[in-house]
Amino acid sequence: MTQQSPSFALIDAHCHIDLYPDPAGIAREAETERIYTIAVTNAPSVFSHTARLCAGSKFLRPAIGLHPELVASHGQELALFRMHLHETRYIGEVGLDYITQDQEIRLRQRRILETIVGWASEYGDKVLTLHSRRAVSDILQVLKEIGRAHV
Question: Are 118 and 137 in contact (CB under 8 A)?
Fold first, then answer.
């Protein structure tokens, strides 16, 4: 008996295909299986690679991201983030991660998130995948204050 595709669309709104041992294989599988996939990235420096993996695909979309846990090591890539932002409709993974007790890192995460949400609002058509750990109220505040300020 052959396996039939489901009669509904499968969607993976948050997949780090670049972190798999065979990212190209994962991209091919998502395309073959017709799984709509947002391929999120942890840092702007890996966006181009992910975008190439998604090129020509009907079902894969690359997302540019800067994971909050990587702000200390990759925060200097914010200009690169801005440079690539026009190449995709999707932003992810960005947000706040308050597992850290370091107030300086939390503040830096927040400033970067505010910047990215501001840029997304200027475009008006971006889809964000947000990371929030112990930070829901601050995430919502940023979206309310910064997001609406640019609408």
Answer: no
| Degrees to nearest 5, angle at CA 43 with 109 and 105 | 20
Alpha carbons 37 and 108: distance in angstroms, whole number: 29
Phi-psi region of 95 (alpha: psi -120 to 50; beta: other; left: phi over 0): left
According to the model, what pLDDT value does residue 6 have?
Answer: 63
Q: Which two tokens stand for residue 72?
A: 């200390």
Where does residue 73 rank: exposed (0-12), middle (13-18), buried (19+ CB within 10 A)? exposed
Segment 92-127, tens digit of pLDDT: 999 999 999 999 999 999 999 999 999 999 998 999
Tell me the per-residue pLDDT of 1-59, one tens digit each, with 9 for 90 and over: 456 666 678 999 999 999 999 999 999 999 999 999 999 999 999 999 999 999 999 99
C-alpha distances out from residue 88 to 1, 32, 98, 103, 149, Å: 40, 22, 28, 32, 22
Supply the DSSP string of 51-68, one letter for each residue. HHHHTT-SSEEEEE---G
Look at the block and give the residue holding tokens 């669309």: 9
| Strand ranges in the chain using DSSP code E only, listed in sequence order | 10-15, 35-39, 60-64, 90-97, 127-133
